[in-house]
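One thing: mind reviewing this one?
=====
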Amino acid sequence: MKSTDFLKLHAVRIGLSLLIVPMLLLNAAGVIDLGFVHRLENYTYDLRLQWTMPGTVDKRIVVVDIDEKSLQQQGHWPWPRNKIAHMMDVLFDHYKIDVLGFDVLFAEHDQSSGLAQLETLAHADFKNSKEFEQALKRLRPTLMYDQIFANSLKNRRIALGYYLRHDAQSDSQVGVLPAPALPKGSFDPKSVGAMLASGYSANLALLQQAAPTAGFFNASPMIDPDGVIRRVSLLQLFDGALYETLSLAMVKMVIREPRLELLYEGGAADSVALEALKLGQHRIPVDAEMAALVPYRGRQGSFVYVSASDVLHAKVDPEVLRGAIVLVGTTAPGLLDLRTAPMQDSYAGVELHANLIAGMLDGNIKERPAYVLGLELVLLLLTGVFVALALPAFSPVGATLLTAVLSLATVAVNLYFWQFKHMILPLASGLLMISFLFVFNMSYGFFVDSRAKRQLARLFGQYVPPELVDEMAKDPGAYSLAGSSRELTVLFSDVRGFTTISEGLDPQQLTQLMNEFLTPMTKVIHRHRGTIDKYMGDAIMAFWGAPLTDPEHARHALLAALDMVAELNALQDHFASKGWPPIKIGVGLNTGEMTVGNMGSEFRLAYTVMGDAVNLGSRLESLTKEYGVQVMVSEFTRAAVPDFAFRELDCVRVKGKDKPVKIYEPLGPLDQLNEQERDELLLLDAALAKYRAQNWPLATDGFARLLQLFPERRLYSLYASRIEHFVQNPPPADWDGSFTFVTK
């Protein structure tokens, strides 16, 4: 077969493979509805939940269960309110519980005491009987069960429960609602997608006015099409205000934080979607409908249960209830509070609230931010394109192994985000994408294709030197533009006084100068296996460790930085011969966890790095001029190159970072230091120790000695000025020895 014919057939195979990708992309975007994908996604969600549930009992939360035993011993539900009031007294006064919530409703008056009949007799048959009237007067307080219950609610940390209606044809309003979590006018209704309630069944006004708060407890509006409850709305709209669920109302009491805030992805309600609720230091993720995924701990029984009848008779071990968060609910089948959960068909509704309370307190509620849709589309696109391009290069055995590895990696990454980042990424669509492409490629039947190698050179050739592209081409399947997180080293360099330099040259001279400056700098970076990220005018950004894995990325970056300075010094005579001013640069290096991959927009993408570690590298480059050095590294880069000698410069807080970072100037290999340099480092370490101990006299002497020996060092005069300032203006008692920079 001619090579041209082979390439033609190969292109057709890839093209047909790529036709599968848009189908799943359109489904993910909601343009078409592949019902089986959604059902499979729910199935994989349930599997992940079951695999990772702790399966332990959370003893902080106790369910006072109106169970079959309680109904047999205390009578059918509802019980007289004086009995419930007695249970409140036992729970708070005898067992000393912390917070109590009712997963039951008290919407009707309690007539079980017979007081109404006695009142009728007092106005009829015994109208003129003073004895009857006096006896009724004495008995009345003991028969006003609603009032007795209301009295038991006062001055106690109790949340009542109520029911919100969502039937468009039913707008009845029974009872009295509590104060809303966010009143009308305190938020932009257009910025929230909360479920809209049409009416409510709430508690008696007498009871609601006595209780400090209440929350709705009905989860039925959030039931998925398969009948399973996977999420519960935490806030719902009624009459322009947002009302909270019972679990949220209880958590507010537990942490003693009444103020609730709405958090948006971009920090503004008019920019992007609602992301979470903020309650004190607690961040509670929610979706577009202000619903939270229930963080199920396990099957029913993941919380402590005690019989309500045993509580009434004080038969429960006091240690079980002391300081507990208590929910009054029911597991009795006849009371119809059983739900379908991902891991159990008949699941007590009261445990939904318990799971949410525990999840909010522990901060382990899973989130599915709005940007996950975009992430799913990108991942599907990248996965589909990668698999479509990669599979033709393998034999059937190799393709099978690749598919298995990709599937396992997809599951592993997904589980990592699920378990450690508490983030839910779609899984079914990615696995289906891989499976469909595998089946298609196996049926198509081609085994060899060199296009992947050429594409690799096209993708990475603009970032890395040709030698590295050739090295990568030996195993093209190992490299991808897909985003990943790994430890890298980033370098930022910038020309000092560039504005002044540019003002003294015409455009042609400036262009020539920059070309003759950037070219040798780039060669140095390439020589040390670096990846050019971008040029920013006179500045260079580069990183080491990607796309080609480099265990020595910090060392190579450090050597490149030192060689850049040396190369620039060698160029000064050449620049002077052309009448150009001398150029000096500042170089900042940092090593740390970064996100690397192809990032940008649909119009332009670039292989780049992002993250806090990248930002710190940029800040360090800016600080070089403050300390009079040309190369500065963080403590993380220093630790990665232990056989190099470094001069400690400072411990600083840079803008955007709360934690201080130690910064250093690299001097060269340890074994190449001369005696004078070693003595200087010993003197500096001693002076810094006195400085950080606030021993100003000895610190002054130490830096004065250093300044006398090395007057050219800006560093020592800088510390002398600081000490002079601190003598007049002592730092706070908890000063950690760091210096804070408030500008970039």
Q: What stands out?
A: The longest strand covers residues 585-600. Residues 6 and 631 are 53 Å apart (CA to CA). The radius of gyration is 35 Å.
